[in-house]
Structures are given as C-alpha cells and as structure tokens.
Amino acid sequence: MPKPIEEIQKEVVEEFSDLTDWEEKFQYLIELGEALPSYPEDKKVEEYLVPGCQSRVWLYPKEDSGNLQFLADSDTALTKGLIAILIRVFSDHKPQEIAEASLSFIDEIGLSKFLSISRRNGLNSMVNLLKNYAKNPNV
Length: 139
What we know:
- The longest helix is centred in the last third of the chain and has 19 residues, at 117-135.
- Strands 1-2 form a two-stranded antiparallel sheet.
- 30% of the residues are buried.
- The protein is globular, with a radius of gyration of 14 Å.
- Helix 1 (5-17) packs antiparallel against helix 3 and helix 3 (77-90) packs parallel to helix 7 (117-135).
- With 139 residues, the chain is mainly alpha-helical.
- The protein has helices at 5-17, 22-34, 77-90, 95-100, 104-108, 111-114, 117-135; strands at residues 57-64, 67-74.
- The chain has one domain (5-135): Sufe protein. Chain: A (Alpha-Beta Complex).
- It is built from 7 helices and 2 strands, in the order H-H-E-E-H-H-H-H-H.
- The two termini are 22 Å apart.
- Belongs to the SufE family.
- This is Fe-S metabolism protein.
C-alpha cells in the first residue's frame, strides 16, 4: 500500500530543507526530472500536453486497481523536475485522495516564491490537470 499523500509531501519538504540555497534546490529538481521513467513516444501528443505551461509538458494518466498512476515528460529540465515531484506525491493513489489533497508542500519548500511567474503558472496548470484527472478518472 502506498504511503499517504501527506507523508510523501513531508518527505519532499525534508529533502528540500537539507538544501541550503536555490541553486542546490534547482539542481535537485533537475535530478528528479532526470530520474523519471521514460515517457512513451506515442503519448507525446496534443491530448496529453498540459495547457498553460510555457514549456511542453506531457502528462499521461492510467488507472491500475483503482489507483491513478502518472507518466510525464517535459522539454525543459526544471519543468521536468517539477512534474516529477507532483507525480511522486500523487501516483498510486485513489482519485478521491488526489482530488482532496492539499498541496502545502509547494509553499513549504518555497516554490511559489522562487519560481518565475510563468513557471508558477505552469506548476498550477500541472496541479490542476492532475486533480482534473482525479475528478474524472475514466482515463
């Protein structure tokens, strides 16, 4: 059984609290993105593009035993790291858990303060799409 979403968020906050400055945090985000599983080329289509992102971000949901799992990719390293964190928090959970989750960790690790406005908007678009998939899980 997967860890609760709140517990995963706490782990992410702890990992980021060990990093001393934003250069280290951005480097860590890039490393998280590099560690994402490969994204299927046949899913790099308009249907799975996240609307509202300056970068191209693909997000593919699939259902497995009542839980949602997500695959993602992006054409920029930092954005790929952002979606990697969101996937880590949300994947392998029931749609209702995802839809109802608060995402306090985004503010706790400082992403809202240190991302540019366009990246912040893109992050919000990714969160909204993940939650929309949870609210309409017929993927």
